[in-house]
Q: What sequence folds into this?
């Protein structure tokens, strides 16, 4: 009898240790730099290497952006017109938190900025690349690999901004590995691969800290006073009174 | 530490903070310049993607100049200690701002002294560091 109970306890312990970590809750960006613990801050990204035909225009655009900013009319991103970021940028917008909501067969992530929502379907096969209509969030499927949540996302349309505003095609694949570094620090290591635009995949890591008790703030973009001129520059509408 | 180094550090701190506050580039504003505006609030809009203070500022000759001051979003301001009912029509405030490069009477908030004497920044950690 004792042996049976001991065996059952061992099985229970094994089952408990196989449970994936609980990521439920609100997480705020945890950035490196002043005041950050270097052991918890995200490691450096790998270099961004574009195919030669995309590298030149990308650098030219960066220079144009710098010139426009110096003149006080920065080149507008979609966000200036209150267009949401989409994937992968929605995972890290300034200081805005994200909320992770696991439910049966699905993990939903809500980003506070622009109230963006993405859904990760668990233990479900990914569709072929051409079967997902290109959009802002594409289609995400996930699975647990030990203590790591592995997510695959495809179907992001080329106008949706990506890492460092790099160009990308609708063939871009986003691979994520989310893992708790400590009880309250989460890392999301993101690899972007694009057989058309990137010479090799680029990998960067986002870090988050748990925000117990934080209540997500609504974000409805109903008072956008910035406007974009016919050259793409951003301006502020000021009022007379 | 020399004043020049201190000024440079303040400017870098300002740029670092701003980069975290805004949903767009802050290059519309001249972050190397500050203007102090003491005036009367005509509107406080707790809205997205930004909150705004509309401010009447009396000049030396008695004429009133109106300013539009852009702030971070409610989420970012809340993280810095702001509340949606912190300001109302008629309140007297003093704001230190970065003006628009265009020369229009618009600006980005850097620091504000509220009617009750509290000093707040334009997001978490901004007050008292500049």
A:
């Amino acid at each position: 009898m004792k042996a049976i109970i001991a065996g059952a306890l061992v099985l229970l312990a094994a089952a408990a240790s196989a449970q994936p970590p609980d990521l439920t809750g609100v997480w705020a960006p945890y950035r490196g730099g002043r005041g950050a613990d270097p052991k918890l801050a995200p490691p450096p990204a790998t270099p961004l290497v574009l195919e030669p035909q995309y590298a030149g225009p990308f650098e030219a655009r960066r220079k144009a952006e710098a010139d426009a900013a110096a003149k006080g009319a920065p080149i507008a991103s979609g966000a200036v017109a209150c267009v949401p970021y989409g994937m992968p940028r929605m995972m890290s917008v300034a200081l805005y938190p994200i909320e992770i909501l696991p439910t049966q067969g699905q993990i939903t992530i809500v980003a506070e900025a622009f109230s963006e929502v993405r859904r990760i379907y668990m233990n479900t096969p990914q569709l072929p690349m051409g079967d997902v209509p290109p959009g802002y969030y594409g289609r995400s499927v996930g699975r647990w690999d030990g203590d790591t949540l592995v997510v695959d996302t495809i179907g992001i349309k080329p106008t949706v901004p990506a890492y460092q505003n790099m160009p990308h095609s609708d063939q871009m694949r986003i691979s994520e590995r989310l893992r708790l570094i400590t009880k309250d620090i989460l890392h999301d290591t993101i690899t972007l691969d694009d057989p058309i635009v990137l010479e090799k995949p680029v990998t960067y890591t986002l870090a988050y800290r748990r925000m117990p008790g934080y209540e997500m703030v609504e974000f409805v973009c109903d008072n956008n006073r910035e406007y974009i001129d016919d050259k793409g520059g951003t301006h502020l509408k000021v009022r007379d009174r | 530490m020399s004043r020049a180094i201190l000024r440079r550090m303040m400017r870098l701190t300002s740029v670092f903070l701003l980069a975290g506050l805004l949903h767009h580039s802050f290059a519309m504003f001249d972050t190397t310049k500050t203007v102090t505006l003491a005036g009367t609030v005509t509107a406080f809009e707790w809205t997205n993607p930004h909150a705004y203070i509309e401010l009447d500022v009396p000049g030396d000759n008695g004429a009133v100049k109106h300013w539009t001051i852009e702030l971070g979003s409610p989420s970012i301001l809340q993280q810095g200690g702001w509340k949606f009912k912190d300001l109302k029509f008629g309140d007297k405030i003093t704001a230190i701002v970065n003006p628009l490069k265009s020369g229009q009477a618009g600006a980005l908030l850097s620091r504000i002294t509220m009617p009750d004497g509290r000093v707040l920044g334009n997001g978490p950690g901004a007050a008292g560091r500049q």
The longest strand of chain A covers residues 173-182.
